[in-house]
Design goal:
This protein is an alpha+beta fold and 362 residues long. The protein contains ten helices and eight strands. The strands form two sheets. It has a five-stranded antiparallel beta sheet. It has a three-stranded antiparallel beta sheet with strand order 6-8-7, covered by helices on one side. A hairpin with a 3-residue loop joins strand 2 and strand 3. The protein is elongated, with a radius of gyration of 46 Å.
């Protein structure tokens, strides 16, 4: 017996009496309605109980599965972080994987995986609960699909930024502390997010770069950097003497602290980079710790200049380049005096114009 039938039986519509007054239900009618309602409940209580137990079972299983999956993801992320800590004993590993970078990357990956797992598990459980109540899910799924397409078109930039951030973190393209060139901006990474990356520029400014706008990344902090110094000397200098001086400077710098830690390879004198009529360029190069190439270059230029001054090697543009030059005569650029400068000289008198003749009147 259906619920509508029970309600109709429990509350029969009064029929107008012949006299026009409404019919008052009797005690027998009330008893009959209660009997019908009790019968309907007795017939359908098993169905209600089965539906309730099924819904409760679905929610319990979904909750337990969600907790188990989230804990498994957390343990997996912690294991990844501990694996990264295993390389801290080496010099290269300690530089490439720092604690802040590991922590932020692990948190970001764990947050994404936990959110995706929770969405899939609880969404599936919600659909199963609706199916238990015999609700037709086809229109609901169709509406959700249309709404998803509309939201995807409207928030395509947000989705692009999010996906780019996820892949950037998973591939470990850069992290906190790295110096990068993102095309639209460059600087030191101070925060990595799924949608926006914050950079500290050379002048102290903070750049907020959307991950979806980054087309290429140049990481200046991974692996090693190259320090290159060009030394320009006069073309008449002795190359063997110049090379010996540079080699001595390079060897001495590589043995002193803290440069022995910043230099990852010996400083090499590569040779002549260019030869001109009045100058020669000798190039030095060395592999350095990431981000320390400018520091090494400044110190190397300082030492080369001092060594050249001590050996008397002339650098183009320096003060020592004009030591042997003869003192210039200050009157060398002046024209010699002319005889025409004196108004009483014979040349000036001969070149003077004749005065016009004077006429006399009688």
């Amino acid at each position: 017996m259906s619920l509508s039938a029970v309600l109709s039986a429990a509350d029969p519509s009064p029929t107008p009496s012949e006299s026009g007054t409404p019919r008052v239900p009797s005690l027998q009618d009330a008893q009959e309605s209660a009997t019908n309602a009790a019968g309907w409940v007795e017939e359908n209580w098993s169905t209600w109980l089965a539906i309730g137990l099924r819904v409760l079972l679905i929610l319990v299983i979904a909750t337990v599965l969600r907790v188990v999956v989230r804990r498994a993801i957390t343990k997996l992320v912690d294991r990844m972080s501990r694996t990264g800590q295993a390389v801290d004993g080496t010099t290269l590993g300690g530089l490439l994987v720092n604690a802040e970078r590991r922590r932020q990357r692990s948190q970001a990956i764990g947050s994404v995986l936990r959110s995706v797992a929770s969405f899939l598990i609880m969404g599936t459980a919600a659909l199963m609960v609706l199916g238990t109540f015999q609700i037709n899910l086809a229109p609901l799924l169709a509406s959700a699909g249309v709404a998803g397409v509309a939201i995807g078109f409207g928030a395509r930039n947000l989705v692009t930024d999010f996906l780019s951030g996820v892949f950037m973190i998973l591939e470990d393209q850069y992290g906190v502390g790295d110096t990068i060139d993102a095309g639209v901006a460059s600087g030191e990474v101070i925060e990595v997010g799924l949608r926006v990356t914050k950079l500290r520029g050379d002048n102290g400014e903070i750049w907020y770069v959307r991950n979806g706008e980054v087309k290429r990344i140049g990481n200046l902090s991974q692996g090693w950097a190259t320090a290159g110094v060009d030394v320009t000397v006069r073309s008449d200098e002795d190359l063997d003497r110049v090379k010996a001086t540079l080699s001595e400077v390079a060897e001495k710098m590589g043995k002193e602290e803290p440069w022995n830690e910043l230099l990852w390879s010996p400083i090499e004198v590569l040779g002549l980079d260019s030869v001109l009529l009045d100058s020669m360029v000798v190039r030095l190069s060395a592999k350095t710790m990431p981000g320390k190439s400018l520091t090494v270059e400044r110190e190397l230029r300082w030492r080369v200049k001092r060594a050249f001054d001590a050996r008397g090697i002339r650098i183009v543009g320096g003060a020592t380049a004009t030591e042997d030059a003869e003192t210039a005569d200050p009157t060398a650029g002046m024209a010699p005096p002319s005889v025409y400068a004196s108004t009483v000289s014979p040349q000036s008198v001969a070149a003077s114009p004749l005065p016009p003749p004077t006429s006399t009147t009688k």
